[in-house]
Amino acid sequence: MNKTATLIGGIGLGAGLMYILDPDRGNRRRAMVRDKTIRAWHKSGDAIGKTSRDITNRTRGVIAEITHLFKREEVDDDVLVERVRSKMGRVVSHPHSVEVTANNGRVTLSGLILEHELNSLLKCVSSVRGVGEIDNQLEVHKTAGDIPGLQGGGYRPGDRFELMQENWSPTARVLTGIAGGALAAYGAMRMDVPGLVLSAVGLGLLTRGATNVEMKRLVGLGGGRRAVDIHKNININAPVEQVYQFWTNYENFPRFMTNVLEVTDSGGGRSHWKVAGPAGIPVEWDAVVTKQVPNEVFAWKTVPGSAIEHAGIIRFQSNADGGTTIDIRMSYNPVAGAVGHAVASLFGADPKTQMDEDLMRMKTLIETGNAPRDAAERHATARQWL
After folding, report:
1. CA geometry: angle at 264 spanning 258 and 266, to 5°?
2. Is-contact 283 274, C-beta < 8 A?
3. pTM given for the model
4. What is the DSSP letter of 123?
5. Distance from C-alpha of 120 to C-alpha of 122, rounded to nearest angstrom
6. Residue 147: CB atoms within 10 Å
7. What is d(CA 215, CA 210) in angstroms, rounded to the nearest whole number?
8. Rounded CA gap, 250 and 345, in Å?
9. Could you tell me how far CA 359 lies from the centroid of its own chain?
């Protein structure tokens, strides 16, 4: 096990040195690493400030809760009603259909509620500080049926344990990251199979805390198309009709998109894509148009079972000067999820940065009618793969 770890470490160190000290691209790569380090340092300062404030506020809250356990609090009726309403919104899908009144700690609930939400609501209200008694006058219905007050609404997750939620607080992220780092270090010192498992779990917790990204999105399993989100906008000196027509003509994409080798219109709103994947190996998938409003909106997504799940929407807005602003929102699930995206970013293959470059090429192509020189060279190289 020690020899294997030493071998893997040596290979990793050698690959890192080759990457950084490359005679042709080493200067650029070192500059990129330096810039990313400086940016991470500034972001860490902001994170430390937020975490400090979060820990302080939580500590005050815990102290207040403990203090109120040992003394009876006289709460104003209006304040108590607001406390109840702020809590019940987490467990009731139609909170506006529930009326709340209070009188000296006695809370009266009336109005409409679905049967499967009743117990959760009563439990939630009873836990509110200052509530001494509950008068249940609710009108319970098994289903919404055609009752106006129970139409619409959405799923309410309830008071879930914080680590089961999608977004974690700064405090939870720090504590989980520390625990994950300690677990990873302990597993590495064991130098056995259980140690490797512990290290993997610890690194997963450390990454989850550092990124605040759900685990399924981190690893790309069960995360759908939203492992990585990208949002960009750009102004183009051309009428909206021209810009919209350009974007809806798939054959234009290889002319300005770095890694797109070929896009074929399959008809019926479907298209077939071939792009340069890791190490230049072509990756293919099919996509379908999900929304299309001429000169306003164009949206698409990959079909189920695609190698890379992907979705996007582009909004076109005509400007007063005759130009066009396009707003692009995309999400995709690369190999290994957000972790794979982070690794690609570290080695200079950051899709977000590439998108900035691609959009500038697109802007030049539309405004001048001529593809930039680097785009033409990339397109010629890409054709060799076909």
Report:
1. 150
2. yes
3. 0.47
4. H
5. 6
6. 14
7. 12
8. 26
9. 22
DSSP-H helix ranges across the chain: 2-20, 26-69, 77-88, 115-126, 170-190, 193-211, 215-219, 240-247, 337-346, 351-368, 373-383
pLDDT digits (tens, 9 = 90+) for 213-271: 666 555 544 544 455 677 888 999 999 999 999 988 877 888 887 777 888 888 888 98
Q: Residue 328 in contact with residue 311, Cβ under 8 Å?
A: no
Angle at Cα 87 formed by Cα 86 and Cα 91, nearest 5°? Answer: 120
Cβ atoms within 10 Å, residue 386: 9
Quote the CA–CA distance of 217 and 207 in Å, as a whole number.
12
Query: In angstroms, rounded to a whole number, what is the distance separating the alpha carbons of residues 386 and 382?
Result: 7
Q: Which residue has the tokens 């219905």?
A: 141
Q: What are phi and psi of 81, to 5 degrees?
A: -60, -45
Q: How far apart are CA 354 and CA 260, in angstroms?
A: 11
Any idea how long the chain is? 386
Give the residue among 386, 378, 383 at the shortest CA–CA distance from 358: 378
Residues 344 and 351: their CA atoms lie apart, in Å, by 8
Question: In 223-237, which positions are buried (b, 16+ CB within 10 angstroms) versus exposed (e)?
Answer: bebbbbebeeeeebe
Q: Quickly count: other Cβ atoms within 10 Å of residue 354's Cβ.
A: 16
Read out DSSP for 151-211? SS------S--GGGSSS--HHHHHHHHHHHHHHHHHHHHH-SHHHHHHHHHHHHHHHHHHH
Distance CA 254, CA 272 (A): 13
Judged by DSSP in three states, 101 sits in strand
| DSSP 8-state secondary structure symbol assigned to residue 84 | H
Tens digits of residue pLDDT in 199-219: 888 877 777 777 666 665 555
Quick one: tokens of 299? 């949206």
d(CA 3, CA 159): 49
Report whether 374 contacts 271 (CB < 8 A).
no
Structure tokens given for 55: 């820990």
